[in-house]
Amino acid sequence: MFSNNDEAVINKKLPKELLLRIFSFLDVVTLCRCAQVSRAWNVLALDGSNWQRIDLFDFQRDIEGRVVENISKRCGGFLRKLSLRGCLGVGDNALRTFAQNCRNIEVLNLNGCTKITDATCTSLSKFCSKLRHLDLASCTSITNLSLKALSEGCPLLEQLNISWCDQVTKDGIQALVRGCGGLKALFLKGCTQLEDEALKYIGAHCPELVTLNLQTCLQITDDGLITICRGCHKLQSLCASGCCNITDAILNALGQNCPRLRILEVARCSQLTDVGFTTLARNCHELEKMDLEECVQITDSTLIQLSIHCPRLQVLSLSHCELITDDGIRHLGNGACAHDRLEVIELDNCPLITD
């Protein structure tokens, strides 16, 4: 058992700088325990340099605003990364204090912090100009005003998640991209008010975009996504699952403009056919993951093209693709991807597939 004598020996043998370095590898819980050993260790454990990255998800039920305020005062400018994911007790006032104290924050996760409003983004805009990654998923009080504030005060923003913030419209997206043209990842899942006009703004102002999630953005059509393809040639990951209005024109545009595409999720896009997937496969040779669940018009022809042209394919979902047969799966099994790469094929409810 650890004793006061042990602590004294450690303090005598090891210089403060080395102890501080050791403490830098400890997690939040261990640091707090060390802080209770002695006054000397309390000072070392609570040194701001040990608190550059904090994840409070495991304590989400216990975290209230005052905890965040105290942490921000302790960490100050040292804090670079903070996750408050799921901390339902944290609101705008606490995050204003946080923003004032932690002006070097680069990564902030507020996913599921349902108390926060546009006031939080106003605070971040005012004090946190170095912010690069921000997760506001399921913060349903967020509106276009938040995106306008981020555009004005957080020009370095590279990744933004506003999934399920369903008050956001094309006007918010327009404001955002005009000030944050360096965006590389944008998650808009469940933003049901977004229209093609929003995508046209993204395509015109975000040439560095690598990841885009539009799942269940039901108003999106070919027009908007084609603009994305033409303006975002570095695109590597696109999720358009549930965007039921899109057609083969999207697959053609991806094939012609986005050769680096690695991940494509188009589940429940029932208008897509073999013709579009043939163009895609022949041009996007870096594809690794595809979700084609309920793309009900595709046949073995799509699988043959993938087996020939997509040697890096690792994961393929074909559930509810009822025209797929054993012959198509056989081609995949003999294709370039089969021996080294292909790990998962999902075939639920494919009645023509046999054992």
TrEMBL record:
Pfam families: DUF7885, F-box-like, LRR_6. Keywords: Leucine-rich repeat, Repeat, Ubl conjugation pathway. Gene3D superfamilies: Ribonuclease Inhibitor. Signal peptide: none annotated. Coiled coil: none annotated. One of its GO terms (cellular component) is cytoplasm. This is F-box/LRR-repeat protein 20. It comes from Leptosomus discolor. The lineage of its organism: Eukaryota, Metazoa, Chordata, Craniata, Vertebrata.
